[in-house]
Amino acid sequence: MLVSRPDMKLGIVLIPGGKGARTAFAALTVSLAIVAGACSSGSANANNGKLEVVAGFYPLAEAAAKVGGSLVHVENLTPPGVEPHDLELTPGAIADIQSADVVLYLSHGFVPAVEQAVAGARGTTVDLLQGVPLHAGVPEEGQQGPVTDPHVWLDPVLYRNLVGRTEAALAKASPANAATFDANAKAFKAELGRLDREYRFGLGRCARRVIVTSHAAFGYLSARYGLTQEPISGISPDAEPGADRLAQLAGLVKRDGVTTIFTEELVSPKVAETLAREVGVATAVLNPLEGLTKQEVSAGQDYLSVMRSNLKTLQRALGCSAG
Ligand SMILES: [Zn+2]
Q: Are 146 and 154 in contact (CB under 8 A)?
């Protein structure tokens, strides 16, 4: 079961009959899960014996939910529709981190508040960036010193590695269920292998290979599939780019025949749209999967479906002939 922080508001509109009723039922199911989360945070015992897993943001929560299945209760610290880079934790969220059986997070300053809170945790805490071959990141305007790119989940091959580490963490916390976690992880890793093959095939033959993105989230994906990322902002999406960077990008768009500037749902598209208008190209949403919106959650979207829709968006923008 995958639930979000219980302290967020959720609106439900009940529409009788047909497809509307199914949507409403799905929304109701989600809301009940959230209510269940509200009464049950704390320890495994408070969750009918389920392992209590706290995850820093969506891709880690999804990995835990896929591997743990019905044996775990997963709390995502980043609510739907919120961008995790600058997440601030409520005292309740800090208490949940400290009492959870397993805490999954990313280091290297991705969400500094979570890194601080895990220091006092009683359970197994796993920094899923440990042991991953990391790339240097793109610094923000005026940022000093080296930065590390944390966006490993957008490469299906590295995400598979994270799923394996998640399985090991759950098995360590609950050895009696290790065989089930192993079977669940194998099934999810097989799906990620299929996704990787779809990307390799789908981006194999393209007219263009440069992608202009809202922030520097697609470095690992670009490295895996032979694309070149040109981000408007750096590793964190909230830094405004300078006039120099925008002029440089405008020149690059013209020179390389870029057709599309990519925006994100959780970040204001203003700068990307202005740039696109100035150089006369289109915009399209390329989802960095840092979180899903409430609409995406109720529509049953998940890591695999969003990655597949990102692939279609890339193929269209880059003029790819395969797939
Ligand atoms: Zn990011």
A: no
Stretch among 5-9, 192-196, 275-279 having the lowest mean pLDDT: 5-9
Residues 6 or more apart whose Cβ sits within 8 Å of residue 156:
192, 193, 195, 196, 199, 224, 307
Structure tokens at 282: 């289109």
Q: What distance in angstroms lies between residue 122's CA and the mean position of ligand 1's atoms? A: 28
Q: Are 291 and 19 in contact, with CB atoms under 8 Å apart?
A: no
Distance 216 CA to ligand 1 centre (A): 7
177, pLDDT greater than 70? yes
Tens of pLDDT along 18-34?
443 343 434 433 333 33
Q: Report which residue type is found at 161.
A: N
| CA distance linking residue 134 with residue 168, whole number of Å | 21
Tens of pLDDT, residues 197-221? 999 999 999 999 999 999 999 999 9
pTM of the model: 0.84
Report yes or no: 15 and 21 within 8 Å, Cβ to Cβ: yes
* CA 13 to each of CA 78, 82, 184: distance values in angstroms, whole numbers, following the listed order: 24, 22, 34
Going from the Cα of 183 to the center of ligand 1, the distance in angstroms, rounded, reads: 31
CA of 136 to the centre of ligand 1 (A): 14
pLDDT at 36: 36
Q: Are 65 and 74 in contact (CB under 8 A)?
A: yes
Question: Strand runs (DSSP E) across the chain, as ranges?
Answer: 2-4, 51-55, 72-76, 102-105, 124-127, 210-213, 228-231, 260-263, 282-285
